[in-house]
Amino acid sequence: MKKYLFFLLGLIAFAGCKKDDVGTKKFSFEKPVHFPEPTYTFDKNPVTKEGFELGKKLFADPILSVDNSVACNNCHVKSVAFTDPQHSLSLGVEERSGIRNAPSIANMAFMKEFFWDGGGIHLDFVPPNAIENPLEMDEKLAHVVYKLNHHSSYPALFKKAFSGIETITAPYMLYALSQYQVMLVSASSKYDKYKTGDEMLGADELEGLEVFEQKCAACHSGELFTNQDYRNNGLDTEFDDPGRARITESDADLGKFKVPSLRNVALTAPYMHDGRFKTLEEVLEHYSAGVKQSATLAPELQQNGTLGIPLSATEKQRLIDFLKTLTDYDFIQDQRF
Amino acid sequence: MKKLLFLSTLLVSIAFLSACKKDEDKKDPGTLEINFDNIAIVNGVEKQLSLVAPGSADYNYTNEMGQNFNINLLRYFISAIELDGPNGEHFHDEMSASASGAKGYYLIDESIPSSQRVMLENIPAGNYNKITFTVGVDSAGVVDGAAGGVLDPATNKMFWNWNSGYIALKFEGQSDVSNGGTSGTETIADDNQKGIAYHIGGWKNIPGTAFVYNNKQLTFTFDENVKVESKNAPELHMVFDILSMFKGDKMIDFTGNHNVHKPADGVDMANNIAKAFAYDHIHQ
Question: Where are the domains of chain B?
């Protein structure tokens, strides 16, 4: 009898252990093996289940906007890898049109700088830009903090997520939002499974990968498919949006924008900083026949005296076959997000 | 006998002396209160600064170019404070920044008198005759992300969201010669055509680009030593002269750029700011 009891106890203990393991694994940050080191400052703000859940709630709550009408996920929609599928230029409170296209926020834990011009230098500092921008949420940080402190459930949720805090303050709200966002890691596309040796790419896709490595990877490099640098890829001759020059205040950077990651790119239309292209076909047409000359045009796009990247019709088709392997269905269906 | 007495007295006094010496070395650390007095030096006379309500057309100051102006708001960051003494005494104020608070960063606000007194604690006992500090928040205070205390962007209103970084010094006011409106201010109404807004900042060294560094590290030597030890409570008075902000190698013309919100536009004024601070006096 005693023996059985012991056995039973052991089993319970074991099960308890196991459950716990799964729990912490699910809600702590894990770097995919083939990814670079993250840039996020986890030492200051480690991810916990409570912090992540709180960030998730905040991300979906229009309380962050002036008239309680716009949430982060209005412009960063999960089903399309956290971009805005409808609007070339983002749409804020009172249907105000912004100046840029909402990018995907997958894999933010690995980015050095944020926004199309790189003006953000830390993920924590991204939300205030959306919250206080008159064209986005048009609210004041201090007032968001006030609303959260007077809310029926947030004060308790913050106390659970950040032990020892008395009242909600902006930095803790930003910590929570970052905990949610750093977890949005997209690394299980067909391409990733090919990389980790779990799945094969088809012949067309492999051909596309080869073309990509030859003609695109100078800028869209590495496992994030961006060198995280700023380039003018020949969209315009005059620049309504100064791009990187807004931050460097140098004419040499006029019309340069952050090289975007291409992960989930088949889902993230419309394309470019102003969402001017509706399809990948249009994007490739731009690279092969639409690149415009200007003083800051990237050297990669004017080699041997020709503008753009020569691409045959088959190469374009193969490139699109390959780009589609970057779609991460596990990511957009992840129950945690 | 006499000899013995002499010897023992000698011994005792040596013991005493060395005890004394030991005491001297082991003096408990003390404090130093630094006062940042914002003033206007008019005709060589230091006057306490006075703020006016936003929108007021009462102009109580005149810049070097003879242009009238007034002030609604003056706020600046002081950080990285160090003290040095003639005999190698050294103290540096501990700095840290995270959501739970910020150490070693001070936000001086003309409208909040208590903010103008910075209390340094745990300074090794000794004499000090030199102070070094930075006007603004350098990269260490920015690169680790959101922080609380005076670095909380919701309460300090000193953060550039579009170009992450803390504004080092924020000035808002009005001048009768200003030639247009301002944007993104705390105190100036959007339709006020007389506003002058100077938000001075810039900490980031971008590779391949000229470094626009508008935070200023300043050092001042005192005309006497400050004696720091546990039983003293010395006070150091630094002054910041608002009129010096608008003069220097480059005069600030209110008819010119009266709405400064990015690093490059603030360079001239940042250079003037460096000369607007001065050591004033010490209370021992």
Answer: 27-283
